[in-house]
Amino acid sequence: MALFSKDVPEEKPEENPKDKKGKSKDKKDKKDKKGKGKEDDDKPGLKRPGTSGTENILITNRKEAMEQFAKAQRAEKVWRAKKQATAARENYTETKTHFRECFSHFKLAFTGLFAVMLAIPHLIRDKKEQRRKKADAARRARDLERKKKLEEALARQSIDTTVTKLDA
């Protein structure tokens, strides 16, 4: 016997004996089908549903689970968006401060660049002066060395001349 199939034959209710006014004589027959009266029995389109209570519970549980899942997904998306928005705000403020610093540093860099460009002749003069001082110090050292050698040579020559005069 299939619980969920639609091939299950349905039982037709028995016809109730009616009096002249169209009412049922049996009071028990009047309230069958869960409190529904005789008016529902006479309509040909109404039949007992073909699903069982278990199937209805499963369908209801599935629908509730789908709704809970959709609600959880929405909550997760909201949480993720909130988290990403917080990170984006932090990045935005940090970037703003970096750009502020960047523009101030850029301004300082160009101010310094123009000052250096204006000071290039002074730098060149300073380098020339340093080279001149170094060359003068080297020339002075060479001159002192030559002078020392000449004095030594003269001293030797004077000693030799005095020695030769004495020998003679």
UniProtKB/TrEMBL annotation:
Residues 1-55 are annotated as: Disordered. Residues 127-154 form a coiled coil. The keyword Coiled coil applies. This is Uncharacterized protein. The chain crosses the membrane at residues 106-124. Residues 7-19 have a biased composition (Basic and acidic residues). It comes from Neoarthrinium moseri. Keywords: Coiled coil, Membrane, Transmembrane, Transmembrane helix. Residues 20-36 have a biased composition (Basic residues).
